[in-house]
Here is the input.
Amino acid sequence: LMVIYVFFGGMLATTWIQIIKAVLLLTGCVFMAFMVLSQFGFSLNQLFTQATEVHPSHIAIMSPGGLITDPVSAISLGLALVFGTAGLPHILMRFFTVGNVKAARQSILSATGLVGIRYALIVIIGFGTIALVASNPAYHDASGGILGGVNMVAIHLAQNVGGNVFLGFM
Here is the structure.
C-alpha cells in the first residue's frame, strides 16, 4: 500500500510517510526511555551504576570503546555524527518537499533536531538494556546468549518496561 501511495502521491506522500514513521519511532523511543528511567527513580546515576554492576566489563563500559583510540578519532567520529546526519536520506529529501529556501532550512533544522533527540535517547535505552535485559535470565537461552540474537535486545527491553502491548508497538 505504501508503494502505491508514494507512486501516485509523489513527494507529498513520501513526506507524510516519513512524518508518520518519525512520530511512531520517536514516540516509542521516548516512552521506552521514560519507562527505563522510571525503573531507576529517574536517576541517570542509578541507571549507570546498575549497568556497570551487571556488565562483565564493569566500569570500563563508561569509557570510549575500541573504535575510538585517540583524540583525533574522537573528533572525527563526533564530526561524522553531527554533519553526517545532514546527509541522511530522511534529511536530504526535505529539499524536494518544500516551496522555497527558507522552508527548506526550517524543515532540515526540524528533521535534524528530531534525529539528534533520537541519538540522545539511545544512551538511556542502551544502558537500560544492559541493566534490565542483560541481567534478566528470562531473556537468555540455555547457552547464555540473548534470545533471538543481539539485535533483539531493544525488543526485549520494550517487553520488560512496557509489557506485551508495548512489545507489539515496537
Remarks:
- The chain has a mean pLDDT of 87.
- The chain is about 70% helix and 0% strand.
- The helical segments are 2-39, 44-54, 71-85, 89-92, 101-132, 153-169.
